[in-house]
Structures are given as structure tokens and as C-alpha cells.
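ESCALATION

Customer reports they have been waiting on this structure for their group meeting. Please prioritize. Original submission:
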Amino acid sequence: MEYSEVRKIETREDFIVFLESLKEDYLLNLQSWENRDIPAFLEAMAAWIADMDGFYQNHGLPIPEKLEWKIFADILIGAKLHE
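Update from on-call: job pushed to the front of the queue and completed.
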């Protein structure tokens, strides 16, 4: 999976397709994943968010100014509880 795929996400459906592709990439290319379990993945997610401004600056992208962080939390807790 390439980062360029992320730049194409514009709709809820695009995001769902992205998540399905990410899962498929995990199943097919686990050896290329630095964080192979949920605790490591969540820790890396927190670290990336803490330094995300640098990522955007390094890639010449605008730094997002207003994100609905609660939505990300809703998604994560929802996935924990959804059957």
C-alpha cells in the first residue's frame, strides 16, 4: 500500500475502501509492518499524532488546522465494541 492512496480519500466510502486495503496489506505483507500488534500499532499512532505537524511540513503539505478528534476516538472505540 502506498501513501499516495491516502491522498485520494474524499468520502466515507473511500475511507472504508482504504481500511479494507490496509487490512489486506497487513495480511499479505505483515513482514513490512513495523507495528504488528494492536498495542504497538496504537502506540505508534499516538507518537505519529504527537509529531504530525513535522510530517506535513516535511512533505510540503498544509498542516490540518481543525480536526474532529472525537470522531477518531468514536471510530476506535466503536471498532472495539462492534461485532
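Sent to customer with the following note: Residues 58 and 75 are 28 Å apart (CA to CA).
Escalation resolved.
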